[in-house]
């Protein structure tokens, strides 16, 4: 009987303990589940932070590579543009066999009426006052001042510029003068007997004592007006050379009187 009671006690105790363990599991499990839920998003946040940092770093690297590629493209375009400008400066068939000096434009005039540019070659390179300067398809002016490694060019649009020219069959001479940087050129009276149409080119006449050798393209007729009763043309003249985009020019090693 004692054994029976003890066995029953043990069974009761085992049941109680088992119940307690079950109750403990029920009590503890929610805490463990809660801790797991809390810890899980923290893990995701940590992983997300690492991924975000990697993305930022990759974006920075891509932006740098894109910037380098754009820089190379810009440099290539700049070199191509300079080569085209230099080729245009060297393409001067109207100079014939006269020696030339190619220079880069490094300065422009401060006002519209005083139309000058500075170039990168001077007396040390053979540039002298009075030498004609061509570029971008035609005459642009002449050297009016020099230093050892630089020179000032008076453009043909300068208000103080006057150039002896001819056109067509060369039988009529005229003086083409500047009126300021952004203005058309003016020309002395051209008689109606001369054949003159839009597109006609005025070139230097090369007369003895003149400032320029013969045959340099100076200006092109942009318009011709015939006024009733007039004996001369009303002419609109523009420079042959593009004076707005001068990068390189060619100095002709020719001096007045030679």
At a glance:
The protein folds into two domains: 1-90; 97-252, Beta Barrel (Thrombin, subunit H), CATH 2.40.10. The chain is 34% helix and 27% strand. It has one helix at 2-90; strands spanning 100-108, 116-119, 132-135, 138-147, 150-155, 162-166, 173-177, 186-187, 201-204, 217-225, 234-239, 248-252.
Primary descriptors:
12 strands; cell shape; six-stranded antiparallel sheet; MreC; Cell/Rod_MreC_2; 2 domains; six-stranded antiparallel barrel; 27% strand; elongated; 258 residues; alpha+beta; Thrombin, subunit H
Can you put this structure into words, describing what you see?
This protein is α+β, with helices and mostly antiparallel strands. It contains one helix and twelve strands; from the N terminus they run αββββββββββββ. It has two domains: 90 residues; 156 residues, Rod shape-determining protein MreC, domain 1 (Thrombin, subunit H, Beta Barrel). The strands form two sheets. The protein has a six-stranded antiparallel barrel with strand order 1-2-5-4-3-12. The radius of gyration is 44 Å and the shape is elongated. The termini are far apart. It holds the Pfam family MreC.
The strands making up the biggest β-sheet line up spatially as 1-2-5-4-3-12
Give the domain tally: 2
**Structural class computed from helices and strand pairing:** alpha+beta
Report the order of strands and helices.
HEEEEEEEEEEEE
Radius of gyration: 44 Å
Give the beta-strand count.
12
Tell me, what is the CATH class of the largest domain?
A: Mainly Beta
Outline the low-pLDDT stretches.
1-39
CATH topology name of the largest domain: Thrombin, subunit H
- State the distance separating the first and last CA atoms: 151 Å
CATH architecture of the largest domain: Beta Barrel
The CATH homologous superfamily of the largest domain is called Rod shape-determining protein MreC, domain 1
Mean pLDDT: 78
Strand content: 25-35%
Largest sheet composition: 6 strands, antiparallel, barrel
Overall morphology = elongated
Helix content: 25-40%
Provide a count of the helices: 1
InterPro entries: Cell/Rod_1, Cell/Rod_MreC_2, MreC, MreC_beta-barrel_core
Protein name: Cell shape-determining protein MreC
Domain Rod shape-determining protein MreC beta-barrel core: 106-252
Pfam families: MreC
């Amino acid at each position: 009987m004692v054994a029976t009671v003890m066995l029953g006690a043990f069974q009761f105790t085992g049941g109680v303990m088992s119940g307690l363990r079950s109750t403990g599991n029920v009590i503890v499990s929610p805490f463990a589940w809660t801790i797991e839920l809390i810890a899980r998003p923290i893990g995701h946040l940590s992983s997300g932070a690492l991924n975000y940092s990697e993305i930022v770093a990759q974006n920075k690297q891509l932006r740098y590579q894109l910037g380098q590629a754009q820089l190379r493209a810009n440099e290539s375009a700049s070199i191509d543009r300079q080569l085209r400008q230099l080729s245009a400066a060297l393409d001067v068939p109207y100079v014939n066999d006269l020696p030339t000096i190619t220079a880069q434009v490094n300065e422009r005039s401060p006002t519209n009426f005083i139309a000058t540019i500075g170039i990168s070659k001077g007396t040390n390179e053979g540039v002298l006052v009075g030498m004609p300067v061509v570029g971008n398809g035609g005459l642009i002016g002449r050297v009016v001042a020099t230093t050892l490694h630089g020179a000032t060019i008076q453009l043909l649009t300068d208000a103080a510029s006057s150039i002896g020219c001819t056109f067509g069959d060369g039988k009529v001479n005229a003086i083409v003068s500047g009126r300021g940087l952004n203005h058309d050129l003016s020309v002395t009276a051209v008689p109606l007997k001369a054949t003159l149409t839009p597109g006609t080119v005025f070139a230097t006449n090369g007369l003895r004592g003149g400032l320029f050798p013969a045959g340099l393209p100076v200006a092109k007729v942009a318009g011709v007006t015939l006024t009733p009763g007039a004996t001369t043309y009303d002419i609109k003249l523009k420079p042959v050379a593009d004076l707005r985009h001068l990068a390189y020019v060619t100095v002709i090693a020719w001096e007045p009187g030679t």
